[in-house]
Amino acid sequence: MTSSLIDAPSHSSTFTTRALRDALGMFATGVTIVTTLTPQGQPIGMTASSFNSVALNPPLVLWSLSQLTASMPVFAQAGHYAIHVLAVEQRALAERFATRGIDRFAGTAWHEGMHGLPIIDDTAAVFVCANRSQYPEGDHTIFVGQVEHCSHRAGAAPLLYHGGMFYTEHPLGSLSPRASRPMNK
Questions:
Q1: Residue 69 lies in a domain
Q2: Nearest of 65, 49, 45, 33 to residue 165 by alpha carbon
Q3: What CATH number did the domain enclosing 95 receive?
Q4: Which position has the higher pLDDT, 166 or 81?
């Protein structure tokens, strides 16, 4: 006997944009901020949760951006960008870089990195990427970046996003020693 999600009584068979958003929200993601420079040399950045690895050889990562986002033309033309994986204590930073109409870098600790890119301090990881390729799909563009440099902060816990909420601690309390150790050890 086989069953499918569509036939299962606990799942709705109505397909709507809201149903898709809710279903996608069941996939927990990390939270990133992507930064680059405008043609005038001004730093810009935005929060994104659509980050993923693509390949180790060559070293490639991807992220996506809505084609309606005001910064789309800047990211599309940028030669390089930096992807910052946020640490659990950086929820306010994620919210700041998701807010429209403000100077997102005001009060943010950052420094100039490779290619003059704005690098946010104390993130869990940073990937400096060449803007290798772009793929318009639906209402977003998928950016594939070739990693030229990366670094990470050992022991940093990542900020997670799931079901429309940030997770800054495990909802069940502390993980068991077995569950909290790296899989490869």
A1: yes
A2: 49
A3: 2.30.110.10
A4: 81
